[in-house]
Amino acid sequence: MPSPGAIATDGPKSEPTQLALALDHAESLAREDFLAGPPNAAALALIERWPDWPSRTILLRGPEGCGKSHLAAIWARASGARTLSPRVLEGADVPIALATGALVLENLAEGCFDEAALFHLLNLAREERAYVLITARSAPANWRLEVPDLASRLRSLAVVALTAPDDALLRAVVVKLFADRQLSVDESLVSFLTTRIERSFVAARTAVEELDRAALRLKRPVTRALARELFREP
Known about the structure:
CATH class of the largest domain: Alpha Beta
Largest sheet: 5 strands, parallel
Mean pLDDT: 87
CATH superfamily of the largest domain: P-loop containing nucleotide triphosphate hydrolases
Strand order of the largest sheet: 2-3-4-1-5
Radius of gyration: 24 Å
Order of helices and strands: HEHEHEHEHEHHHH
Low-confidence stretches: 1-23
Number of helices: 9
Number of domains: 2
Strand content: 5-15%
Helix content: 40-55%
CATH architecture of the largest domain: 3-Layer(aba) Sandwich
Number of strands: 5
Oligomer: single chain
């Protein structure tokens, strides 16, 4: 019998568990990799017609993962815009933020920005005729704001909406998400997956991630058979 603290080495050995590594997967934000379809047609047309915009400040509104950031990145390259999180915007930074004459404010959300700084930015952008592209998941019309003039200014913004994907766009998104992970999948897997997940960009991203992780953990290819095990029939 081994003494206390001794390590027994003659018993049966269990196989080590393979850990799936959480690797980052680069997503291309180039124009040629943007998946166009009816849910985002108006927003894409707006980006491509710049600088012929109906207003110099535009708000792109849509659910998470719908392509707002991709469109903003396309426009930023074309316009030379800086990209800034509203969370870090401060009054003193406003002139610097607008230095190139174009700015992306990424993911504006209720309660997550300095209202006075944003009001200052919108006013200065109007004075200097700068372009501002704002992305948000919801329109600010119903937000609770402390600065009345800012509330009025945000309500008056030109808003272009991106909506949930239709069937064709959802299938294309799934294929692209797999391709971003350098995975080539067949049509049967795509068809199976898109009929068993919620019709949303977030659900597609989550499903692809789960399949990739399961394949790594089980040392199996990403196939329809694996998807059937993870996403069983209702």
